[in-house]
Request: fold
Amino acid sequence: MAIVIFYLLLGLMALGVPIVFALIFAPAMGVWLNDQTIFLNMMPQRVFGGINQFPLLAIPMFILAGEIMNHGGITRRLVAFANTLVGHLRGGLAHVNIVSSMLFAGLSGSAVADTSALGSILIPAMEKDGYTRRFAAAVTAASSVIGPVIPPSIIMVIYAYIMGVSVGGLFAAGFVPGAMMGGGLIIVNVILARKRNFPRNAERAGLGEVGTAFGSAFLPLLTPFIILGGIVSGVFTPTEAAAAAVAYALLLSIFVTRTLPLARIPDMLYRAGLASSSILLVIGAATVFGWVTSLSGAPAAISGLLTAISDNPLIVLFCVNILLFVIGMFFDAGPAILILGPLLGPTMAALGVDPLHFAIIMCVNLTVGLATPPMGLVLFVASTLTRISILDIARDMWPFLCVHVVVIFLITYFPALTMTLPRLLGFGG
Reply:
């Protein structure tokens, strides 16, 4: 039955059926074709049960915190601070784009939010400064995938919920890969800037200017440290940390910076609710999909297939990384985690791979998929902002994608890169 369900899922997606409906219809049709209709009556309960979980409250809270920070003018403060740091270099605005994405990642937890917020500001500025619109879109898309890697991260909350991994540990594991991705993008941009003679217009900012910009961005930049620090110290749970992030964002935007009009709050609540409902509905649908595939014995079959390839975890991890990268080209990160996490996680644990280590590998790999054609979500956003085709953007983005692939394999085969900080904070084995 498992093979039938997967074929049905792929067929429905090929026909253009939205993923949330494909995740429900495929197992329902599989159950019906196998004359196990008794399970159909249980499916609505499974959908509701998959959503009705306290840890999932963190998702709408983190989305709302990102909305507040963005509408409160925090994004421009981060861009201004990044400009004082790297704006004077050749290819300065491209560097600013990358550094701003790293800074914004600590606020939004979403690659799409990063692309839309920073892209609307920096793509027109880069084009005006002499960059091609295609390259500006490519840099924005490539750097935006850092958003779900540096905490907070919505997809990490999803993985932690579905697989029972520590949210705080997964957040801590994301700092180093995020920094490596950003640093690698900057190195590639330095090479491209020299080769293509990118503009170098801005003068080096003085210490006073840097200090002023840092002071303006300092309080927003504390957000990820408040979240992780609160979780590690036991002050609040990960879900309460998300609520604390919303309260902190409101405090900053309304009372400290005074840049958020109260009239905008209803619209932000609506946008956050709309985005959250979409994610939670997919989670509920994926819960049903995972439940039915588990009943069909798919996890054991996939485990047997992987161990048949090799019993060496390094070889299996290589194969899994290739699989995840290909899956990421077609699936959004959230649904992919919900479908593949329960299938691959137990197998890797049986091979001796630390669950937290595999969690960060999977999250980073599928996040990079957001920027890979043909279905990369941030590519669609960048294409919408610039009115350039996805394939044209991808042609300028391939050197940056190579950086992300290198980072994936580095964190795969050198676990200390991701596991050291969580262990120092008391997470992991």
In short: The chain has 21 helices and no strands. The first helix runs from residue 2 to 14. The chain has a mean pLDDT of 83.
